[in-house]
Amino acid sequence: MPNPDYDLSGRDIIVVGGGGYIGAHVCKTIAERGGRPIVFDNFQAGHEHAVKWGPFVKVDLRDRAAILAAFEQHPNANTVVHLASSIEVGEGEKAPEGFYENNVSGALNLLMAMREVGADRLIFSSTCATYGETQNMPLLESEIQNPFSVYGKTKLAIEHMIQSYHKAYGLNYVTFRYFNASGADASGEIGEEHDPETHLIPNALKAAAGLGQGLKLFGTDYDTPDGTCVRDYIHVNDIAEAHIQAIRVMDGGLTQAEVNLGTGEGYSVLQIIKAIEKVTGLTVPYEAGPRREGDLTQLYADASRARNILDFTPEHSSLENIIATAWNFHRAKWGL
Ligand SMILES: NC(=O)c1ccc[n+]([C@@H]2O[C@H](COP(=O)([O-])OP(=O)(O)OC[C@H]3O[C@@H](n4cnc5c(N)ncnc54)[C@H](O)[C@@H]3O)[C@@H](O)[C@H]2O)c1
Asked: What pLDDT, on a 0 to 100 scale, did the predictor assign at position 1?
């Protein structure tokens, strides 16, 4: 049902990476507000079954001519949501060239095509992984960005490219630094389907369901109350809603912003496991292992800029709702 808060009727919005986990939720929310999400995706990680709220163009961001041709098919779209990237952090460490090519060159191709066709509004999915190790929690957007991983470095490079396009050519943008996207749409029709899956909640649910080989904890000797890493989990429907608010404020004249998307609250790995056991009634079997290189002790957002600029507060991100909706999706997917 279109939300009376912000109406996107008659709007074409290009969603690059709209076949992926977060992209599918963004598309559904755009459609619920009356807009038409147009997905550009090469399905290197996304899923055809997750694209169902508007037209689809199969296109690879690394192919500059093909991206331009895709834009030319949809001349009414001046707003682009850019979610496409390689995201598996370990893969970036082993083979950085593919990461830089897909993420950085791909984003440059996108920016060039946008400029060529006159699309002048961009919402970009960056990450809290662009910050470095710091004790300054909660993290403000003004915190020094000193990413450890290749993944974080590619995202920071893209942030810089977007800032340069803003300065030189007047590109309007909102760069979101997502914290941990989690949960699933309450309908159960879309959810997190990465392959390989490296995220804690789906992997812990899998272990609870007796599928796979149990859960590995990467480090139990961190300087946190229970020794495990602390992260900020935000529901994917809240992330999608923040995109609608970003479109609204850009329509209202906002020209540039970097904005954290988190709840401001941190949970440890062991707290997540306990919450999963409570919601599912199952036990999560796990094995403590050594730290994983590059994992920071804790990361949680200062969420006040999103509140102030976008008038956005997460509404779906209680830990219980995140886990219940993820479990609802995965149980159906696994036939349980
Ligand atoms: N999931 C999280 O917790 C999280 C946290 C911080 C930032 N992000 C960022 O949010 C975005 C979406 O994340 P996600 O979890 O939905 O990932 P995802 O892998 O599910 O979705 C990414 C989509 O982009 C597409 N894609 C990748 N490279 C492409 C290319 N060259 N051409 C066309 N399409 C391409 C994939 O096929 C996929 O559909 C990513 O940019 C990611 O870095 C995610």
From this structure: 38
